Amino acid sequence: MAQAAGANGAARLPRSNKSGMAVALPTAPRYEQIAQTLRARMHSGELRTGDQLPPERELSQSFLVNRLTLRRALRQLQEQGLLARRRGAGTFVTQPKIEREVGQLVLVSSSQERRGYQPGTHMVLCEQRPATAAVAAQLALPEGAAIYFIQRVRLLNGEPVILERLHTAAALCAGIEQHDLQHRSILEVLASEYGRQLGSTQQSLEPALATRADAALLGIRAGEPVMLERRRSLDRSGAPLEYGEDVYRGDRFRFVTENSAPEGYRFITSAPGVVSV
Predict the structure, then answer these.
(1) 113: enclosing H helix or E strand
(2) Which residues contact 108 (CB under 8 A, 6 or more apart)?
(3) What CA–CA distances, in Å, run from 192 to 125, 187, 195, 202, 244?
(4) How far from each other are the two terminal CA atoms of the chain, in whole angstroms?
(5) pLDDT value for 259
(6) Are 256 and 227 contacting, i.e. CB atoms less than 8 angstroms apart?
(7) Is domain 98-256 annotated with CATH 3.40.1410.10?
(8) Which of 55-59, 109-113, 169-173, 260-264 has the lowest mean pLDDT?
(9) pTM exceeds 0.70 for this model
(10) C-alpha closest to that of 150 among 171, 130, 172, 176
(11) Identical fold at 1-96 and 98-256?
């Protein structure tokens, strides 16, 4: 259904009742009610990705609140990745963030296909080069040893979202550039073509800012937030398999984890109102 637009191009927010307010729980704070209403309109498709919200003055009048209350609601939606403010342009509905499970090595193609995305890959580079001291240490090689450096951009629905950089010892996978690295998983190639089965991985996550080179490949501005994932994979014998540095777009990903209490962990109440662990 086409979205009606106001004179300034912003989407006109459909009204849920005569006052222009959607029904919300009366006990919820006003800013929560507003955020809940806007979320519901996004989920129903009344507000779509790329739609511009009306100006704050118009929104505050529609919801019968002051601008401070309205801004608190909009800030909450921004923090949830549902809205984005563009300086000098306004506030826009953004795409929901893609969830990346921390602590699990999940193939981008298979995991995102299950979520309804169309994955793709753009090969940037595959070449032999001497290992730097830092990379050599990760791969248990002498500095200057020959390695393969592979750089790819991973796409979802045609949009660049991850920049992959992978290093592996050239002596253990000679001729890897002859394989179809654009459509095949590199770990799958290492396993099926070279008999190097993945055993375990060590991963770390670190917030960073996109470099000019990374931004150009990811279609974002230099200095925008990204998440840097460093990964060291070992084969089943415990020998280094590959070392990777992947850059995830901060505006497209949310990193999630699930934890459970250790076996035998319990709360002990030592006195009324006092809890010890």
Answers:
(1) helix 108-114
(2) 119, 154, 162
(3) 22, 9, 6, 22, 20
(4) 55
(5) 74
(6) no
(7) yes
(8) 109-113
(9) no
(10) 176
(11) no
Q: Which CATH number fits domain 1-96: 1.10.10.10, 1.20.120.1760, 2.50.20.10, 3.30.200.20?
A: 1.10.10.10
Query: How many H-runs (helices) and E-runs (strands) does the chain carry?
Result: 7, 12
Buried b (16+ CB within 10 A) or exposed e, 179-206: bebeeeebbebbbeebebebeebeeebe
Q: Structure tokens of 51?
A: 């739609």
Helices (H), 140-273: 186-194, 212-218
Q: Mean per-residue pLDDT for 176-183?
A: 94
Q: 66, 30 in Cβ contact below 8 A?
A: no
- 7 vs 52, 62, 260, CA distance in Å? 12, 16, 52
Going by their DSSP bridges, the two strands 253-256 and 98-101 should be labelled as: parallel
Strand ranges, E, within 212-265: 225-235, 240-249, 253-256
Classify strands 119-130 and 198-209 as parallel, antiparallel or unpaired.
Answer: unpaired
C-alpha–C-alpha distance, residues 261 and 240, integer Å: 31
Phi then psi dihedrals of residue 192, to 5 deg: -80, -35
**pLDDT tens by residue, 229-259:** 999 999 999 999 999 999 999 988 888 877 7
CA distances 59 to 16, 86, 157, Å, are: 14, 17, 32
Cβ-count burial of 151 within 10 angstroms (0-12 exposed, 13-18 middle, 19+ buried)?
middle
* Ranges of each domain in the chain: 1-96, 98-256
Give the separation between CA 130 and CA 191, rounded to whole angstroms. Answer: 23
